[in-house]
């Protein structure tokens, strides 16, 4: 890995937005381990001091990681100060509110893209910008129907229509708003690429579900903590999404890092979904790892999502940029589940 040519030199500053998130915290740690500096944006640094402690402390002690406040990512000039001197941007921040009004979710997501892109355009030090999208931007990942073949120009436009359906806003809007916001944000990224003569390269990484080692307790308590739902038998959530795709968070973090560092990756839309999985496979691994614990019964009709997606670019980057010379493809489901439940934050 040390012999690879990088698009920005070691020691460069990388701006990571939403740094306290599950994915972003792993991205930050991987950058630090590769001798890059990290400036992480968070809503309130006082609530995110854990990013300066534990495994981050050696880097915090040398000033390699710093936290800055961006309480409203969609505000004009929100990133103007944070971006100064940054050689690269990894924009993972998103609106976490699950509410029926699309104006409270989609609108600020688009505004956030405009804010950070305009800041990057004004900052000559920026060489690369990587944006976190989602698999649901390209496909509905609908259970029980044929979702077809996902390609470079695949878009889940129906979810935008559902989110922007006329009020009164209700549950259907709340369900649609997150995927619609990710889709709208990614489209805004590519609109900037098309309409501006940018002095920096732009890539997008689109993961599906993320599992693996939490670096903070909040990472096991969120709605998207999929293994936690199975571990605790949260059937109402499990029933909604019986089959999906999951990747180890460290793998997806590495794809983001590679999308910054690899000089050959330009204008890429990197689908990074991981393994196609049904809950029964997750439950099988959990019973194997925790034989003394009782788990919910298997589903009677296990199946996988009917969708085809080319993840070869993501896998190639994983294998090229891993510090493990024997790395082959996505980390296994069993290892990822082990990482998800073997930590001080998950209690029975």
What does this structure look like?
By secondary structure, the protein is of the alpha/beta class. The protein has one domain (13-212, 246-273, 308-330): Rossmann fold, CATH 3.40.50.720. The protein is 35% helix and 17% strand. It has eleven helices and twelve strands. It has helices spanning 22-33, 57-61, 106-122, 157-163, 171-195, 226-232, 235-240, 249-261, 279-289, 312-321, 333-341; strands at 13-17, 37-42, 65-69, 88-91, 128-132, 146-150, 201-207, 209-211, 243-248, 269-272, 275-278, 306-309. α3 (106-122) links the parallel β4 (88-91) and β5. α8 (249-261) packs across α10 (312-321). The longest helix is centred in the middle third of the chain and has 25 residues, at 171-195. The model has no long low-confidence stretch (mean pLDDT 96). This is Aldehyde reductase 2. It comes from Chaetomium tenue.
C-alpha end-to-end distance: 39 Å
Poorly predicted parts: none
> From the alpha-carbon coordinates, what is the Rg to the nearest angstrom?
20 Å
Strand order of the largest sheet: 3-2-1-4-5-7-10
Q: Based on Cα principal axes, name the global outline.
A: globular
Beta-strand portion reads: 15-25%
- From the 3D coordinates, which CATH architecture would you assign? 3-Layer(aba) Sandwich
Number of domains: 1
What is the CATH fold-level name? Rossmann fold
Mean pLDDT: 96
H and E string: EHEHEEHEEHHEEHHEHEEHEHH
Query: What count of helical segments does DSSP give?
Result: 11
What is the CATH superfamily label? Answer: NAD(P)-binding Rossmann-like Domain
Q: Mind describing the biggest β-sheet?
A: 7 strands, parallel
Look at the structure and give the CATH class. Answer: Alpha Beta
Helix amount, in percent? 25-40%
| Structural class assignment | alpha/beta
What's the total count of β strands?
12
């Amino acid at each position: 890995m040390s012999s690879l040519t990088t698009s920005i030199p070691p020691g460069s500053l990388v701006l990571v937005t939403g740094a306290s998130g599950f994915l972003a915290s792993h991205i930050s740690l991987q950058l630090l381990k590769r001798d890059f500096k990290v400036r992480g944006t968070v809503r309130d640094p006082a609530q995110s001091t854990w990013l300066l402690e534990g495994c981050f402390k050696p880097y915090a002690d040398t000033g390699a990681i710093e936290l800055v406040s961006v309480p409203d990512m969609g505000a004009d000039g929100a990133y103007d100060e944070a971006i100064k001197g940054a050689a690269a941007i990894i924009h993972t921040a998103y609106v976490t509110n699950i509410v029926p009004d699309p104006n409270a979710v989609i609108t600020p997501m688009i505004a956030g893209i405009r804010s950070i892109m305009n800041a990057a355009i004004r900052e000559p030090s920026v060489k690369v910008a990587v944006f976190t999208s989602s698999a649901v931007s390209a496909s509905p990942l609908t259970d029980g129907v044929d979702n077809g073949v996902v390609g470079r120009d695949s878009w889940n436009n129906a979810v935008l229509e559902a989110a922007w359906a006329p009020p009164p806003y209700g549950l259907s809007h709340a369900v649609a708003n997150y995927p619609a916001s990710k889709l709208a944000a990614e489209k805004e990224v590519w609109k900037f690429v098309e309409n501006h003569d940018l002095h920096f390269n732009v890539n997008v990484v689109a993961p599906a579900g993320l599992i693996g080692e939490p670096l903070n307790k909040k990472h096991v308590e969120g709605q998207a903590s999929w293994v936690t739902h199975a571990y605790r038998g949260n059937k109402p959530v499990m029933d909604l999404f019986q089959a999906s795709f999951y990747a180890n968070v460290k793998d997806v973090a590495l794809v983001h890092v590679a999308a910054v560092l690899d000089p050959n990756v330009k204008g890429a839309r990197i689908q990074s979904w991981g393994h196609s999985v049904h809950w029964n496979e997750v439950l099988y691994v959990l019973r194997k790892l925790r034989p003394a614990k009782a788990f919910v019964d298997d589903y009677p009709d296990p199946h996988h999502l009917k969708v085809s997606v080319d993840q070869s670019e993501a896998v190639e980057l994983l294998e090229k940029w891993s510090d493990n010379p024997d790395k082959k493809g996505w980390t296994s489901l069993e290892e990822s589940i082990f990482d998800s439940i073997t930590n001080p934050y998950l209690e029975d």
